[in-house]
Amino acid sequence: MNISDKGIILTDNVDMEFLKSLSPRFHSKYVKFVINVESNQVCIGMDVHANCLLNKGNKGEEEHLYGGNIFFDDSSIIYESTLNIPKNLKLRNFKGNPRIITDAELMTMIEAVLLAWVKI
Prior knowledge:
The protein is an alpha+beta fold. It has one domain (8-119). The chain has 4 helices and 7 strands. The protein has helices at residues 16-21, 59-62, 85-91, 104-117; strands at residues 8-9, 14-15, 30-36, 41-44, 65-71, 77-78, 118-119. The chain has a 5-stranded antiparallel sheet, with helices on one face. Strands 2-7 form a two-stranded parallel sheet. The radius of gyration is 13 Å and the shape is globular.
């Protein structure tokens, strides 16, 4: 599969085997994802979260984008990305690293979109 450094926007459900097939293009232990909580879109497999195809330069869209990583060894999800910093600073709810989402309500919202597309 030929995937650019901007990843691919999911148009069908995928599983961990599909996610693993995207690596080790950039990262051998995990795959990066970006979701848009407003449009319920998911982009996976990019090199850098900020380069994802969901971010087409539309500044209004950026407020709906969240990023993270799915780890292959235990299927864990870490909501860490530079895309998360503005939202965390606005919520003032982060523990040391504003790249990592720790707000339970926000994590539930992100996970609902992610798990609608990705079977972990």
